[in-house]
Each structure stands twice: as C-alpha cells, then as structure tokens.
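lol ok so funny story. i was supposed to be doing the assay writeup but got distracted and ended up predicting the structure for this chain instead. priorities right. anyway since i did it might as well share w the group, maybe its usefull for someone
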Amino acid sequence: MVEKCSVLCPRIWVEQLGGCSMIINRKTENELNVICDKPIIDKSCYYTSEGLWNGGLVPIKSNFKETYRIFRCAFAFLAEDNKTLLKNISKFIEEVKNCTIEHEGFLYDLQLKSKDITPDDYENAESISLEFDVLDMYEAEKSITTKQSTTINISSAKPCYANLELSASTSVISYTVTINDTEIVVNNIKGNETVYIGSGKVIAGGKSKINDVDIWEFPILKPGTNKIEVNRADVDLTIKYNERW
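and the output, tada:
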C-alpha cells in the first residue's frame, strides 16, 4: 500500500499539487504500488516536406503527416526495503511498456519511449520520469441501440470505428445496414443469437461468421453527422464507438 505524502518526492510533488489519480491497464495506483504525478500531454503535431522540382518556381508540398504526441509523467515509489522497491519498479516498467491509461475523462493507448530513474533523498524511495508515444486518445465507449434508420453525431475531431451488434428474436434470412457509404449485408441471423461486427472480425456464437456477411470494409464514423440506414425493423442494431481526439 502506498501513502501519498508531499515530502516523499519534493522535486515532483509540492504540497499544493499533491498526487494525481490515474488508472493504468484498469489497475489503481495502490495495486501498482506507485504514486502518479499530473502528466504533461503534447498537442497534435503535423509536418510537411516541400521543395522545388525541375526548376519550378513554386514549391511542391506533400500531404500533412501527424507525428505521435508525447505523454510525459513522473511516478514515485516507496517500499519497506530496497529489494521490494526494485521489484516494484521492475514490475511497473513491464506493466507500462504498452498500456492504456485513464486520466481526466480520456483514455490513452501508450507505448513507452524512454525512462529516467532518479534516486530520492529518502530511504527506499525513488522517482522515475517516463515518456510515451500516444498511439491513440479517446473517450469512454458510447453506444446506441435502434431498429430504425437514424443518425449518429460525432463531436470529436477524428474518425472512429463503429462496432456493431445485431440480434433478433426470430431467424432472419438477410439484413442490410449502411453506415454512410459502407453497406453491410448479414445473412442467416439465428434467433436470439448476437452477431458481432468490428475490430476486424465477424463473430456469432463464438465462431467466425464472415462467410455469411458481405462487407468490403469495416464501418467508420466520421466527425459530424453519420447516416445509419437499415432495411428492416425486426433486428436490434447496437452501434458502439469511442470518440477519438
């Protein structure tokens, strides 16, 4: 069990700031034996390359490319002895090499980039500063369930995947759902069985159902209004998504 204390790491936490509640891979700070400081997260960054070609007078610019944002955070460790301290740090580093962190209403998929370990002035205490690449930043999952055609408004700045769940009380020979320009035809839906479409898979009853589905690409919800069309009203359609930032 870790107790938050402003004198534990005076270089990181001053009394007016304290610690920062954070969930890492669905584990609390106490479960990971760590105290988290408030992270610093870079904003989105883009770059282009440009140059003059064949003696041209106007530079030709390439498409914008987005670089990884950086997630920086300091973590403090306190243990009853140095051996336990080193074990806790080692376990924590393994935990966060590739991780998902929940902080202030957002989730961050992260990949560890660099670390800096600083011995503390206090016995059996150390602080480490970690830097991560932000692979993705998104909000908690949202969902709607409908039997009718409808719309979904995405307020985030980036497109997001739509994960579908289809179910009916009786068997359905064929069902068509169109999300924007992506049409999906699902055949042979069994009564009271749920068909899952998303994350690159089509599953029903724990087995692949890809042979019963006509699909060219998995559906994406774009920023703004997205049109959802269905061809019949006896199938429950649930659309789950995470707005991305």
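The longest strand covers residues 106-119. The chain has a mean pLDDT of 85.
back to the writeup now i swear
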